[in-house]
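Quick start: read one record
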Amino acid sequence: MAIKTIIIDDERLARNELKKLLQEHGDIEVIEEAANVDEGIEKIETLSPDLIFLDIQMPGKTGFDLLAEVEKAPRVIFTTAYDEYALKAFEVNALDYLLKPIEPKRLSDAIQKLQYEIQKENAGSNGGRGPLTEDDQVFVKDGERCWFVKLHEIRLFESVGNYAKVFFATNKPLILKSLNALEERLDERTFFRANRKHIINLRWIEKIEPYFNGGLLVELKGGEKIEVSRRQTVKFKEMMSL
């Protein structure tokens, strides 16, 4: 099945060069191109592409502005001459970024990654994204610092309003995701909602002891002590066969 694609770049030569490279990839169908952000947004809204190749630096508005403005963002591969934008690209969940001038090998890698993502999504029973497994890595950014963290390294998520604090190693950065949204994506065989404020990684449990009101107190290997609410204790005991 062809992957409908739009190229958004203010340089005509760059667009032509990319189109030429994409001819080697039969399943990528370039249906349209745009020379600036506003034109790009209009074409995305009208044509609903599966993928966009997006330049970051364009006159007026940047590629990031475009992503902030579209109703539903398609998959994104950034094309840029500026590698300091690379990490920022991952923060907005871009599939990949290609440094100009684009190397055919890097382009092939990015497209392979895209095909893998599509297969993974199609394999999910609901056609949407399946749960994140413990080998998946998430991108976490806190101020100027950025991390790619494997989920099995994360021992605890703690709710802080609309944010969640992520505990791994000695770090506790905040991410803009609610605990409920995280719970929907995390594999319940590994991550357990202990109470209203905490999701714990079951593999990080060091000690379990009874707590008042029929609940439990769990101590994690990082030293954190988390109460399992009375309601969740029943479910917890079933899961852990206590």
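The radius of gyration is 22 Å.
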